[in-house]
Amino acid sequence: QVQLVESGGGLVQPGGSLRLSCAASGIRLSPYTMGWYRQVPGKQRELVALFTYSGWSHYADSVKGRFTISGDNAWNTVYLQMNSLKPEDTAVYYCNARLASSLDYWGQGTQVTVSS
Fold first, then answer.
1. Which of 33, 43, 91, 97 is the most exposed place for a label (fewest CB within 10 A)?
2. By three-state DSSP, how is residue 108 classified?
3. Rounded distance, CA 82 to CA 6, Å?
4. pLDDT at residue 90 above 90?
């Protein structure tokens, strides 16, 4: 059974930092395109960042220069380092692993709240 488990969310003040983790079981992440997405109530889920273990990454314009996506092959985990957080970054953050339409997995999400 494939599981993606996110952790690291929480409450942080504007300007602060958080690091989200996405740990996988049941699959090796290295062949997959990994992504972090976020969603706020009433809005569509949006892409935050994408990553492959070959070294390619892509970021939404809203997080460029503030967020960094990375992976640890040994720990089968993907991270999202979030710096200079803003209130508009508040959302539930989801981890995704995709290799094909039939190999597309999501975590349960972790809440990030940026507020003073």
1. 43
2. coil
3. 14
4. yes
